[in-house]
Design brief:
EC 2.5.1.129; Flavin prenyltransferase UbiX; about 200 residues; single chain; FMN
């Protein structure tokens, strides 16, 4: 019998709520994964503004949902087994809270638990341009063990729609935390098969 893996998905107030939604959709395809969703207060507002989905629609994609202030939730304890946590998107406020261990609500507390227990934590930080304070927070959270993965689009797969970009980015994030069965198609090495003469400078 396949062991069930718990995966936490948090959606915070940065732009890009579609990333968290797509991650939930992909995880729902796996019967061996149990998803735990936390929406921050700002995340709920952004979701309503950016996506043609109701809050109920998004909550229905997860197996378990929590309120942002629900500090007594299972995912707030290190004794509860979690395979990975993704914050998609991750606001600078959330990044900063995680980087400093300021766990005043469930998203940062669940993330802090992942760090202290040595579990994969991926933060899809969505902000630009970045000032020095942002960069220092990213360094601090990386030193603590988190994976900082801004949702930078990849164009070599030749995406045709925004949905293609979102799907690829979501799949890359899931692969990075060890869920390789949901990874995008691997690069087939097309460039390495090019005629070497085509790679030489002309003139």
């Amino acid at each position: 019998m396949t062991e069930t893996r718990n995966v936490v998905v948090a959606i915070t107030g940065a732009s890009g709520a579609c990333l968290g939604v797509r991650i939930l959709q992909l995880l729902r395809e796996r019967p061996d994964i149990r998803t735990h969703l936390v929406l921050s207060k700002a995340g709920i507002l952004t979701l309503r503004h950016e996506c043609d989905l109701t809050l109920a629609d998004v909550r229905a994609l997860a197996d378990v949902t929590y309120r942002p202030g629900e500090i007594g939730a299972a995912i707030a304890s290190g004794s509860f087994p979690v395979a990975a946590m993704l914050v998609a998107p991750c606001s600078i406020k959330t990044l900063s809270a995680i980087a400093t261990g300021y766990t005043d609500e469930l998203v940062s507390r669940a993330a802090d638990v992942c760090l202290k227990e040595g579990r994969p934590l991926l933060l899809m930080v969505r902000e630009t341009p970045l000032h020095l304070g942002h960069l220092r927070a990213m360094v601090a959270v990386t030193e603590a063990g988190a994976i900082v993965a801004p949702p930078v689009p990849a164009f070599y797969p030749r995406p045709q729609t925004v949905g293609d970009l979102v799907d690829y980015t979501a799949r890359r994030a899931l692969a990075r935390v060890g869920l390789w069965e949901l990874a995008p198609e691997p690069w087939d090495g097309e460039l390495t098969r090019a005629d070497p003469a085509d790679l030489l400078p002309r003139g």
